[in-house]
Amino acid sequence: MFHDILNSFIDPILVITKEKKIKFVNASFEEIFNVNSNIIMNENLDFIIDNDSPLILLINKSIKNDINLKKDKLIISLRNQNK
Predict the structure, then answer these.
(1) What is the pLDDT of residues 57-68, one digit of tens each?
(2) Residue 24: what are its φ and ψ, rounded to 5°?
(3) Which DSSP string corresponds to 21-51?
(4) pLDDT digit string (tens) for 27-71?
(5) Which of 24, 43, 49, 77 is least surrounded by CB atoms within 10 angstroms?
(6) How many CA atoms are closer than 13 Å to the CA of 22, on its beta-carbon side?
(7) What 8-state DSSP symbol labels residue 54?
């Protein structure tokens, strides 16, 4: 059910671990980035996005400082999986 809800969004959604392993992408992400979720699942994010891209820099900043970030339509939200 959770995946069905995320797949209904028109904005791309990417869920990764703090180690930047891909855990989920919605259908919009697959379409916009021209990737198949079955191929990229559990891969490192740099498998599909260059390490020097602004997105990676923002993700690194968020992880390093343990903070949530919002820039334009991008939201990086850290969640503790143990909670």
Answers:
(1) 888 888 888 888
(2) -160, 140
(3) BEEEE-HHHHHHHT--HHHHTTSBGGGTS-T
(4) 999 999 899 999 999 999 998 889 899 888 888 888 888 888 887
(5) 77
(6) 23
(7) H
